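[job 4471] stage=fold_predict status=RUNNING
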Amino acid sequence: MKAAAIQMRSCTRVDHNLRAARALLEEAASRGAELAVLPEYFALMGHSDRDKLAAQETFADGPVQQWMAQAARELGLWLAGCLPISCTPPQEQRVINTLLIYNPQGQHVARYDKIHLFKFDDGTHVYDEAATLAPGSQPALFDLPSRDGHTWRVGLSICYDLRFPELYRTLSAQGAEVLLVPSAFTFVTGKAHWSTLLRARAIENLCALIAAAQGGVHENTRRTWGHSMLIGPWGNILAEKGEEPGVAVAELDASELAACRTRLPALQHRVLSQIVPKGE
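[job 4471] inference complete, writing structure tokens
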């Protein structure tokens, strides 16, 4: 299966971002991609974190969701993208960072709400997603029957989730073969940890991985790391972008994944599937 990681430098104008995303998706489709992953906050990188409150949509009803369904249908893609979805019941000051999946018929097939919320303060850069986001609580996967005849089991995650290996171990235990990581990693944390964390999650779970990122200096002055990439189950980088917007495309090989899991059946050797706290 050929897959694409879409790298963007989203701005504060939704219409501009959707036009840019559509052009990149068209490139991915023209290069034969079946699955395309948009970066976190692809539709809006606001002047402040509170801008996502005004941009929130009700689940299954909203212009960005309609745009995603239409793009998936017109381009014949499995499409993954994040957007702010209203809490249920509504919360006045918080939304949910949600990853939605659409099939090539434009139908919604899966939803994942970001579980881990980023917080960082080095004295210069300060972020606290919990100020405007409510966390999710459940892992999510979906099945993707590809043109190569293999049905891929795809596990979902978003950005800061990458630092919590227990989520990915849960996904692999539920059959995941491909991991999606749409992200907007900061330049500081991305430079230090991005590639290492991505390759570790792929290696330890013997999964292919698609990481679509924001990259460069944005209109709101925030700088993101970029370096969108696709990684094989042995930890080999199959394709990678730099910091500029663009499309990274690579072939995911089901037979290679099976061979890796046969040569090194580490997923069958798990012992500590659940750690019980002392005294319980």
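[job 4471] summary: The two ends are 45 Å apart (CA to CA).
[job 4471] exit 0
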